[in-house]
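Board notes (copied after class):
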Amino acid sequence: MASNSRRKLPKTVHPLKRLLHYGHPHRQQIRLATICSILNKTFDLAPPVLIGVAVDVVVKQEDSLLAQWGMKDIFGQFLILSILTVIIWILESVFEYAYARLWRNLGQTIQHELRLDAYSHIQELDIAYFEDRSTGGLMSILSDDINQLERFLDFGANEIIQVTTTVVIIGSVFFFVAPSVAWMAMLPMPFILWGSVAFQRLLAPRYAEVREKVSLLNGQLSNNLSGITTIKSFTAEQYEAKRIERESEAYRQSNRRAIKLSAAFVPLIRMIILVGFTALLLYGGMEAVAGKMSVGSYSVLVFLIQRLLWPLTRLGETFDQYQRAMASTTRVLNLLDTPIAIHPGDKPLPVALVRGEVELRNVTFAYRDRSPVIKNLSLHIPAGKTIAIVGSTGSGKSTLVKLLLRLYEIESGTITLDGIELSELNLKDLRQAIGLVSQDVFLFHGTVAENIAYGTFEATPAEIIEAAKVAEAHEFITQLPQGYETIVGERGQKLSGGQRQRLAIARAILKNPPILILDEATSAVDNETEAAIQRSLERITQNRTTIAIAHRLSTVRNADCIYVMEHGKLIEWGRHEQLLDQQGIYASLWRVQMGLR
């Protein structure tokens, strides 16, 4: 995986320069691939020269160029040309094989490293970053944009090098063989280069728009596929099809605008090329007839000018690939340059030594562009105790969980674990010390056993089964078609809500963290399942710090202390009986839930 140092060029720098800077560790392979491309094109341009020499032998025979070098025998001259032809074709094939392997492997390597770097960087970004972006948009960068770059490295880079090599070699041959007409062949070159640069500048913003439109389309597709059950239940298939049609049409129109310009490149360049080819055909032919140029030299020039000018028509396709790749490069490298808001601390936190005492002092936090959700909050959670946090929706309960896991950074105040500020602790160690059982259980597409062992990947089958038994999940797991090897489906869609919840508890049990956070762990299950979950929770909360975020007050009545939150502040705290005696908000909520009024 690439280090951060290889991608730190300002966004104002040209994307090609940023890409080369990123690929700096592979400079040796880039050099070797470039050399092979140049040598391949050099040998590819040799046959027209051999044809010119052969024509010279046919016309002049004993007075040919080869005869002047000492080979008077005509058969011997053709034999030399035949041997040279075989050698040149073999070398051309060898270097074509070499450059194809080198460039395409380089494309695969850069693609692989970019994807890993981009994904690893995304994982380090704070949750606020994802709130402003769609999953499909990020998928578009990780997949489509990186693939676009790989396609350019596969073919486009070699094409540019070979066209440049062609211009240099053939231009040199022209001025050496026939300087009087060489300028005619070279006349279109400045116009071709100017046209290429002009088209590049015009295409750049159009392809940037194309990448943005495909990102929006992918975002909508990803969102719809995730919500397919909701779409079906509300019979919104036609409505969503129309939305996809609009996004797809916008993508098609942005591509059309780019294609309209890029398609004009080749015909215009061909007209410019026609000038040089016609001039050489006419004036070069007259010079050959007048004896100012040999027939062999004329033959070489006619062949070479085609090899020089016609490949330039492919510049349109190459620049098209180039501009798409540069637009994608900009998006990928801009993602890599997104600053990481939450920086890991440097103090190690051995999980075995964590006591689990948590304290919040005057903590204030607000989501971006919103008023504070937590306001000057102070809270002490003793080690090994079970505390509950209750309150109405939007009071800030679940936000506390995110702050404890450092998914967000607090604006002011301090949060400490065993007397050490969370910001100073190694982030991985901190999260390893906390087990979270959320109401929104996420199961990965895989087996039951894989999902229980997620995060504790070295767990043995016996440990997985034991954790499932403690979570009261073993019985229903054994009744599944393949038991612990049953595939749960994406997000665990093949399981019920209660089953998913128990697998999440088993996952937390297997992790065996010193701090356990239960965020509405029983809010979406039936009474029977809740009772089973409660039994398992009573077992796993023994001798560990437990923070229970709850809406159902009956699930936390035995907590050592219950905190009541309202609008980001603590307004009541105490044990269940004490809070009932206070006849405050908690007592009111209790009476409502128990049906006492």
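Comment from the instructor: The radius of gyration is 36 Å. Residues 1-5 have pLDDT under 50 and may be disordered.
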